[in-house]
Amino acid sequence: MSDLPLRFQSVDALRAQVATWRRAGERIVLVPTMGALHAGHLALVAHARAMGQRVVVSIFVNPTQFGPNEDFSRYPRDTEADLALLAGAGADAAWLPSVETMYPAGFSTRIEPGPAAEGLCGTFRPGHFSGVATVVTKLLNQVGPDVALFGEKDFQQLQVIRSVVRDLDMPVTIEGVPTLREADGLALSSRNRYLAPAERAIAPRLHAVLSGIAERLATGAKAAPLMAEGVASLEAAGFGPVQYLEVRDADTLAPVAQVEREARVIAAAYLGGTRLIDNVAVLPG
Ligand code: PAF
């Protein structure tokens, strides 16, 4: 196994290390995570290694992006296992701030993202994207990377972060990385471990339904009837409630009635007590 990544728990020590790398002319890539790492995160690290000389992975389960009835307290945490995985993947540093470091007494600033945060998960998780935008802004300011990578599975999150970085003139390039999937199509997610075996068997239907819709949209079909059919198929498979199933423009996230340029079919649905999200690209034929 490769060496464990350097661990940082203070902003000053982290910045000193990044400054040393930067003086040596090295390009710094940040992979922000909440830990509970899986192959999808390791694919982000592999991507990061191809983009720069130094890879910093942050692990922080951010309380401000969870609603009061969400899974903050039970979100899986195993830093040592995460660090071992990061060593194997070749990350250089792990940024492991505490809640007190991120939100010291008196912390009172929130970033309120614009229209990209409206609708979809923004409707069902009030305050979620403000929490994400605030913590990601802090992580980018703390690390000061040249590039930061985010998975496309959280497609709305990716667009929210792009809009915040653009609007606030933050000197960093945001890159989306395609979703890694199990052989049966289920998108990798730290929350998949909540699924009971019977639910795990049903879960790939989400990707199958989205892919079927994407194929038909690509040939010019209208979105509305496909959405109704898709919700019915998901419910018949055992999902419920289906919070949303929509077609959105891939750049602006505006609703799309018929696909003329790149779009995404995007959904969130409960399977038992687990909320799954996924999205599939639609490229008009
Ligand atoms: O996608 C995640 O893991 C989180 O939302 C992020 C971007 C690390 C912010 O806490």
What does this structure look like?
The protein has 285 residues and is an alpha/beta fold. It has two domains: 172 residues, Rossmann fold (3-Layer(aba) Sandwich); 91 residues, 2-Layer Sandwich (Pantoate--beta-alanine Ligase, Chain: A,domain 2), CATH 3.30.1300.10. Helix content is 38%, strand content 19%. The chain has ten helices and nine strands. It has a six-stranded parallel β-sheet with strand order 1-4-3-2-5-6, sandwiched between helices. Strands 7-8-9 form a three-stranded antiparallel β-sheet, with helices on one face. α9 packs antiparallel against α10. The longest helix has 16 residues. The termini are far apart. The site of pantoate (PAF) has 10 residues, from β2 and α6. Keywords: ATP-binding, Cytoplasm, Ligase, Nucleotide-binding, Pantothenate biosynthesis. Catalyzes the condensation of pantoate with beta-alanine in an ATP-dependent reaction via a pantoyl-adenylate intermediate.
- How many discrete domains? 2
Taking pLDDT < 50 over at least 5 consecutive residues as the criterion, the unreliable ranges are none
User: In percent, how helical is the residue content?
Assistant: 25-40%
Structural class: alpha/beta
Q: Describe the largest sheet.
A: 6 strands, parallel
CATH classification, class level of the largest domain: Alpha Beta
Q: Cα distance, first to last residue? A: 46 Å
- As for the CATH topology of the largest domain, it is Rossmann fold
Ions, cofactors and other ligands present here are: pantoate
Cα shape: globular
Order of helices and strands: EHEHEHEHHHEHEHHHEEE
Instruction: Please state the oligomeric state of the protein chains shown.
Output: single chain
Average the pLDDT over all residues and give the rounded result. 97
Binding site for beta-alanine: 65
Keywords: ATP-binding, Cytoplasm, Ligase, Nucleotide-binding, Pantothenate biosynthesis
Binding site for ATP: 34-41, 151-154, 180, 188-191
Family: Belongs to the pantothenate synthetase family.
